[in-house]
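Saturday, quiet lab. Running sequence design on the structure tokens for the scaffold JK sent over.
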């Protein structure tokens, strides 16, 4: 693994390599000096939908039931019009969050991928999109990657409904189903959200092959830059965001 990573590093002229792992012993430290740059937590859900439902926090089950009763519908992006609707929400929400965006062609490429699934699911209330998720899948494994919520509809908890819908679909079609909810910092609001799904919790280590200080979202300089970005006109965010996001390592 290290030799392959080194070849990519040379090709791209990167300043350092970053590894993310749950097991520090798997990286052959006798051949590679690694520095721990960050420590995160991760949650993994495994099993069938019925078993998972019983393990969910009671509050989470009630949230999903309520979202369903409100008439929120779940739809998979399958047409250019669907993708355009998603991108408009993504551009607006991410910019107002203070985060740069990918270009729309990036998501078109993902949807056309032949090496795995990169489905985008939308939650609609009447005709309006209130939430969206992207969860790449490879055989029986699903990784929750992107979540977009319309701020004025956050109280609908549509993200929980989207995730539950995805769990039902994938766990019924694949044996040994697992869903990775993604790395997060302990004590953060998103950490509390993920914990209520009652998945197995593990520690994730960020390791680098040289001493380097990675971007810290809690740093004052980062918060200031994010605040400035959040007030950009959407046309500017759309144009320069893709150039910025490729250089952001979090």
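Result came back. Writing it out in full:
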């Amino acid at each position: 693994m290290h030799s392959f990573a080194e070849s990519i590093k040379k090709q791209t002229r990167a300043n350092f390599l970053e590894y993310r792992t749950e097991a520090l012993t798997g990286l052959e430290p006798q051949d590679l000096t690694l520095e721990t740059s960050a420590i995160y937590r991760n949650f993994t859900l495994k099993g069938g939908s019925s078993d998972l439902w019983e393990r969910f926090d009671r509050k989470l089950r009630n949230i999903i039931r309520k979202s369903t009763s409100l008439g929120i519908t779940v739809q998979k992006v399958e047409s250019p019009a669907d993708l355009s609707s998603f991108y408009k929400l993504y551009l607006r929400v991410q910019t107002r969050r203070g985060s740069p965006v990918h270009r729309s062609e990036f998501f078109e490429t993902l949807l056309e991928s032949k090496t795995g699934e990169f489905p985008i699911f939308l939650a609609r209330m009447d005709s309006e999109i209130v939430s969206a998720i992207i969860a790449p899948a490879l055989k029986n494994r699903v990784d929750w990657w992107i979540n977009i919520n319309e701020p004025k509809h956050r109280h609908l908890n549509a993200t929980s409904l989207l995730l539950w819908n995805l769990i039902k679909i994938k766990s019924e079609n694949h044996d040994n189903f697992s869903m990775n909810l993604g790395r997060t910092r302990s004590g953060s609001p998103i950490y509390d959200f993920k914990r209520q799904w009652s998945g197995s919790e593990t520690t994730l280590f960020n390791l680098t092959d040289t001493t380097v200080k990675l971007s810290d979202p809690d740093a004052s300089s980062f918060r200031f830059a994010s605040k400035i970005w959040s007030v950009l006109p959407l046309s500017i965010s759309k144009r320069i965001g893709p150039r910025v996001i490729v250089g952001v390592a979090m």
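Notes for JK: The chain has a mean pLDDT of 87. The CA atoms of residues 44 and 180 lie 5 Å apart. Ask whether to fix the surface positions before the next round.
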